[in-house]
Automatic annotation (TrEMBL):
Pfam families: BPD_transp_1
Protein's UniProt keywords contain Cell membrane: yes
Swiss-Prot/TrEMBL keywords: Cell membrane, Membrane, Sugar transport, Transmembrane, Transmembrane helix, Transport
Domain ABC transmembrane type-1 as annotated: residue spans: 105-310
Amino acid composition bias (Basic residues), ranges on this chain: 334-346
Membrane topology: Multi-pass membrane protein
Disordered: region residues: 1-29, 327-346
Protein name according to UniProt: Multiple sugar transport system permease protein
CDD domains: TM_PBP2
Cellular localisation: Cell membrane
Chief place where the protein resides: membrane
Taxonomic lineage of the native organism: Bacteria, Bacillati, Actinomycetota, Actinomycetes, Streptosporangiales
Amino acid sequence: MTTTHDERSAAANAAAAAPRARRTRKGGDARSQRRLAALLLSPTLLVLALVIGYPVLAGFRESLFARGEGLDENGFVVEGTRFVGLDNYTAIFSGDGADAFWNAFGNTSFFTFTTVILETVIGVGMALIMHQAFRGRAFVRASILVPWAIPTAISGLLWRWIFQADGAANAVLRQQILWTADGFPAKLAVITAEVWKTSPFIGLLVLAGLQMIPRDVYEAARVDGATAFQQFRSITLPLVKPALLVAVLFRMLDVLRMFDLPAVLIGVNQDSVETLTMIAWFEASNLRYGSAAAYATILFVYIALIAYLFVKLLGADIIGEAREQTKRAERTKHADRRRKTKAVAS
C-alpha cells in the first residue's frame, strides 16, 4: 500500500516537473538562438557602425566647430578651428541665412510632396499596363524603364535642352516661357524631369507586387460580378500595398536629398529650386564646413522624422510584417505538431 502511494507521488512529481523542464529547455533554446543571431549580425552591425554611425557622429561634431578667422568671447580675432557650440544652428534659424534656409526647406518639402504623389499615380498606372498580357509587352516594359536607366545628370541636360528658350517645350506650347530661369516655371521644369525619370521605379516595384497576387482572386471577383474598379479598389490596392509603401518611402527619402537634377537643369544659387542639400554643398564649397555640417545634420533629422512618421502612420513596417509572418509560421508549425501528437495518441 505504501509502495503504491510512493509510486503515485513520484508519478505526480514527475508530471509536475515535466512542464518546468520543457520551459527550462525552451528558455535555453531561445537564449542560444539569440546568441547565435547576435553573432551572425555582428559583422553587419560593425559595418553599419563604420559606414553610417561614424560619419553621422563626425558630421555632428564638425557642426559644433568653426574654421578660419573669427572673434572669441573677448572680441579678439582668432584663427584655426574653434569650438562654437550650437552657434552654427542658431545662425541657420535666426541669422542672416535664415531666409535661405527656410526657402530651401520649403523647396525640398514642395518637391517631395508633388513629385512623390505624381510618381505614385503614374507608376501604378505603368505597373497595371505592364502587368497586362498583350503582344509586345516586353518591348513596352523595356521602353518604360529607359528613363530610370539614364543617369540623372544626363537627364538633366536632356530636359535643359527641351526647356531652353527655343526648345521643344516652348515650340509645343507656342509660348516663350523662361523655364530654366528663376521662378515658378523652373519648379515645374524640375518636377517634370524628376517625375519622368523616377516614375518607372515605382512602376517596377508595384509590378513585382502585382505578380504576387493569385489570378484566382480576380476570377472569383469576376464571378461575383465585381467591376474593374471594384477589383482594383478591393483586391489590387490592398494586396499591393506593402510593395507600394516601400516604393513611396524610398522615393521620399531620395527626393529629400535632391541635388543633381536641379543643379544641372536650372543651376545652383537659384532661389526657386534651391534645396537643403544644395545649400549645404554651397557652404562646404566656400570652406564653411561647420555650417555645412549643421545643414546636413538638420536634413538628416528631417529625413529620419519623415521616415519614422511614414512607417508609423501608414504601416510601411517591413520588419513588422516579417515578424508577423514568422509568428504565423510558428503557430502553424505548433498546430501541426499538436495534430500529429493527437493522432499518435489516438
